[in-house]
Amino acid sequence: MSAHYHRQEDWPLLPDGFGCRMVSNLAEDSQGRIYIVHRGRHPLFRLSPNGKFSESIGDDSITPSINYDLTQSPPSPISEAYWLHGLHIDPWDNIWTTDLGRHLILKFSPSGQLLLTLGCADLPGEELDRFNQPTAVVVGSLGYIYVADGYGNSRIVKYSPEGKPLLSWGKKGIGPGEFQTPHAIALDGDENVFVAERMNNRVQIFDSQGHHLAVTMQWKKSHRW
Q1: Domain ranges across the chain
Q2: CA-to-CA distance for 183 and 1, rounded, in angstroms?
């Protein structure tokens, strides 16, 4: 049986003068509410299940930054924007996003209060408490936090539920356990970690301690996600 979809012209229902610029991600919470991150003003906002605008989140915490193209030497500036990238709703409906331009992970409560910041604003680095253009974040059922530190460091970093750095794994490369732009991350019920790599065109699986389990898929032609 195939699913049937239709285009809804008036979705989402946004206030006058409110729009989206370069939508980078969306997610849904346990109540069916929908969250969107994009690169323009009010970069993180919530919709009701029917697509009606509910509220903007993090306007006092999320600021514009200049993102850099790390494939150039030296890195060249791209543009100034709200460089949110990853988005995740955890099992308690907290809202997580990655700000790759400022090298941060931000956690908001369901009511929109900033609860936790990981990383050092505008200070990229390789230490466990810093990132270099992080791409994605996911939280498991026990509260452990996994970050794809993707564009600059090509690694996965694991944190305690309180935000204490525990371990990292991976480096730039093409072998098992190595990454080239880990771009998306997900967990299964056993908290195995699935990592999608943009430049290696593959998905790798690790256990929760970073031990390599398998390469599930690999494409010979170029794909992006």
Answers
A1: 25-218
A2: 32
Give the CA angle between residues 43, 49, 53 to the nearest 5°: 40
160/157 Cα distance (integer angstroms): 10
- Report the CATH number of the 25-218 domain: 2.120.10.30
Spell out the SS3 assignment of 124-153.
Answer: CCCCCCCCCCCCEEEECCCCCEEEEECCCC
Quickly tell me which residue has 């944190």 as its tokens: 159
- Beta-bridge mates of residue 139: 145
Task: Provide the residue-wise pLDDT of the chain in tens; the chain has 225 residues.
Answer: 566 788 888 888 899 878 888 999 999 999 999 999 999 999 999 999 999 999 999 999 999 999 999 989 999 999 999 999 999 999 999 999 999 999 999 999 999 999 999 999 999 999 999 999 999 999 999 999 999 999 999 999 999 999 999 999 999 999 999 999 999 999 999 999 999 999 998 999 999 999 999 887 666 554 555
